[in-house]
TrEMBL record:
Keywords, alphabetical: Hydrolase
Organism: Dysgonomonas capnocytophagoides
Official protein name in the record: Glucosamine-6-phosphate deaminase
Residue ranges of domain Glucosamine/galactosamine-6-phosphate isomerase in the record: 45-265
EC number, UniProt record: 3.5.99.6
Gene Ontology process terms (BP): carbohydrate metabolic process; N-acetylglucosamine metabolic process
InterPro entries: Glc/Gal-6P_isomerase, GlcN6P_deaminase-like, GlcNAc_PI_deacetylase-related, Glucosamine6P_isomerase, LmbE-like_dom_sf, NagB/RpiA_transferase-like
GO molecular function annotation: glucosamine-6-phosphate deaminase activity
Pfam family, one: PIG-L
Top EC group: hydrolase
CDD domains: GlcN6P_deaminase
Length: 662
């Protein structure tokens, strides 16, 4: 079972020469804007294996010299694959940790006894599985009295010094440029201290705690000064949502607003990223500024869109001088004139626009994103959560139904943990009132509802996990909301399927790894429907996020069906949509579906059927806008972008990228 196929999606094939130069001269040219040694890998997994191997070499080198190896480690998602490989090296290749001293980089504060904490995560992922001496494990204490924190932090610094200083510091790069819990505003002189978590930090640690309410307000973290004393620093960043931070740290100026930028001052720092996290680096996103390019259609489109915004001109008004003044003279040499390139890119973008996402019947489809035949098509929309379908492609969804395609929807997870307790209290109370009115003798159901109400209103404390009855009700609330939205759009109940993939059903924010059971469920569904067109959530931001795991389950199922000779796959196309926050970059868009004002309003109404996901939803993130507002703003912005480039003006646009099975 291939469970990480989504990590191989880079949307275009980035030539290896941009991130694996063959000689020092090429390396110097490509990285001339970079201030931190940066190594780019095709996937986080490959980079993690390499990093773990290097850590193992350092441990063994110290062992051979009869010395201890002082290792500072973070929690979080980013290092998980590294820890897994270190555990494998210990078990399969006898890597010993007996000479290793570990310092945890941070701990949350205040911690209640028995609550989740960073040291616990380190133990579960690594320390409990190797032969480290437990007396060699140090971590800030998240349970001490507040008036003891200052002295405790000073003592932690002394413990590091007593151990001989940090030999190897492993850091994950946060979305806000934070390292450890050094949030924006942290200065170069900061040492181990108590720091208040900002909203971005709280969002990043949400997976550690059961609910947003249970996230501690503060953390005790090593400071920037403490980190810069380490002999060697490895910084890691995976996923496209880290791309801006990577660019800021590697190519930006040193600033306390980007705490990780202070690492530019360290003599032995190396950053490891995957291609998605490295996307905003100049050599990946704008290689024409640092080297001669292999000009693919997508790279040409990206370069011209960039040039339009740099010159504040639409495509067809760009001149030879614009190209020459901005490092794009190569394109003039290849195509003869700005006019020729302009027309090529303009037509390329024009051909992405279609009002027929399922293909227009009896039409010339040579320049359309989707085929005319067969018509009508059997279409499957996969939705990771019960509302992603309408939030991300509600207009296209409605258009497919209106154009008489045979549309099916498959909800991959229950989404139960994203329902607030007050929603269950409301529905349980309603059920009790209905029982009282119509069937007072149904004491078993009333007793069950009373148990649910008692648990939520009296027994449950902040941070407690829900019991199975509450999770069932939360899942059913989301199921009914999704069904209502589908009915509103015009989907019969027989075309609505809830897959309830097992990886999700932990009752906690932290999910289980994907297994063959998840893949088999998706395989069976696809084999049953045998669609001509499939829409999937293509978010690649979080390597461990629900959307990505759901995508991996689909891609693994497709891969296995392909290997098993499923003939219907030859006539099936797969389109990826994005989540609520961001749209595809325009250089990737292969199908752009215009949405009229009336259709946009209908889309909003379908999103509003998901009432549990309004203001009271537990995981709305830092964005104060509601999901329908985020979605509309995104769709408006895509339409405006097309218009600024000189194409037709639409109210809104939903965009898609085609996935071609490997």
């Amino acid at each position: 079972m291939k469970t990480d196929l989504s990590s191989q999606i880079t949307l275009e094939r980035i030539p290896a020469k941009y991130y694996r130069p063959s000689n020092a001269f090429e390396q110097t040219a490509l990285t001339r804007f970079e201030k931190v040694d940066t190594q780019i890998y095709e996937s986080a997994q490959k980079a993690s294996i390499y990093i773990a191997g290097k850590i193992a070499e350092e441990i063994q080198r110290k062992q051979a010299a009869g010395e201890n190896f002082v290792l500072a480690l973070p929690g979080g998602h980013s290092p998980q694959s590294i820890y897994q490989e270190l555990v494998r090296l210990h078990k399969d290749e006898n890597l010993s940790f007996k000479n290793v001293i570990v310092f945890s980089i941070y701990e949350y504060y205040p911690l209640a006894k028995g609550s989740s904490n960073n040291l616990q995560i380190l133990k579960e992922l690594l320390l409990n599985h190797v032969d480290i001496n437990t007396n060699n494990i140090y971590a800030p204490d998240g349970t001490i009295a507040k008036d003891s924190i200052f002295g405790h932090c000073k003592e932690y610094e002394r413990q590091i010094e007593k151990a001989g200083g940090i030999d190897y510091l492993l850091l994950g790069l946060g979305r806000g440029g934070n390292i450890g819990v050094n949030i924006p505003g942290s200065n170069i002189n900061s040492q181990t201290r108590l720091i208040l978590l900002d909203n971005q930090s709280k969002k990043e640690v949400a997976n550690t705690f059961g609910t947003p309410d249970s996230i501690p307000v503060s953390a005790i973290t090593m400071g920037i000064s403490t980190m810069l004393k380490a002999k060697k620093i490895t910084l890691i960043a995976w996923g496209e949502d880290k791309s801006k931070s990577v660019k800021d740290v590697v190519e930006g100026e040193v600033s306390d607003s980007i705490p990780a930028s202070w690492l530019q001052n360290h003599p032995n720092i190396r950053l490891y990223t995957d291609l998605n996290a490295a996307y905003d680096l100049t050599r990946i996103s704008k290689p024409w500024l640092v080297t001669s390019c292999e000009w693919t259609n997508q790279l040409i489109r990206r370069a011209i869109v960039w040039l339009c915004f740099k010159t504040d001109k639409p495509i067809l008004k760009l001149t030879n001088k614009d190209y020459q003044d901005n490092g794009l003279g190569e394109l003039l040499a290849l195509y003869g004139s700005a006019y020729n390139v302009n027309i090529k890119v303009f037509n390329d973008l024009q051909h992405t626009i279609t009002g027929w996402p399922g293909g227009k019947p009896d039409a010339d489809d040579s320049n359309r994103p989707e085929r005319a035949k067969p018509y009508p098509k059997k279409v499957v929309i996969f939705s990771p959560h019960p509302d992603d379908d309408v939030i991300s492609m509600g207009g296209t969804f409605q258009r497919l139904v209106n154009q008489k395609h045979d549309v099916h929807v498959a909800y991959q997870t229950s989404g139960n943990i994203a329902v607030g307790d007050e929603e269950v209290i409301r529905y349980a109370s309603l059920i009790n009132n209905v029982i009282q009115k119509y069937n007072p003798s149904d004491k078993a159901l009333k007793e069950q509802m009373d148990k649910v109400l008692n648990f939520l209103m009296k027994e449950k404390n902040i941070g407690d996990e829900d019991n199975k009855d509450v999770l069932f009700m939360k899942g059913r609330i989301r199921r009914e909301e999704a069904t209502t939205a589908c009915r509103f759009i015009g989907i019969p109940d027989s075309h609505i399927t809830f897959l309830d993939l097992p990886f999700y059903e932990t009752g906690k924010v932290q999910k289980s790894p994907i297994t063959q059971a998840d893949v088999n469920i998706v395989k069976a569904y696809l084999q049953k429907v045998q669609p001509h067109e499939v829409f999937v959530a293509g978010d690649l931001a979080d390597p461990h996020g629900t959307h990505k795991v759901c995508l991996d389950a689909i891609l693994a199922a497709i891969d296995e069906l392909k290997s098993e000779g499923a003939t219907w796959l030859k006539e099936c196309r797969f389109w990826m949509y994005r989540g609520a926050w961001a749209e595809w970059e325009i250089d990737y868009i292969e199908m752009a579906v215009p949405i009229s004002p009336e259709e946009l309003r209908s889309k909003r109404l379908s999103i509003l059927k998901h009432q549990s996901q309004m203001e009271s939803a537990p995981f709305l993130g830092n964005d104060e806008r509601l999901f329908w507002q985020r979605s509309e703003d995104r769709n408006h912005a895509t339409a405006e972008l097309y218009h600024k480039l000189g194409l037709a003006s639409y109210e809104a646009i939903e965009a898609f990228v085609e996935y071609k099975p490997l």
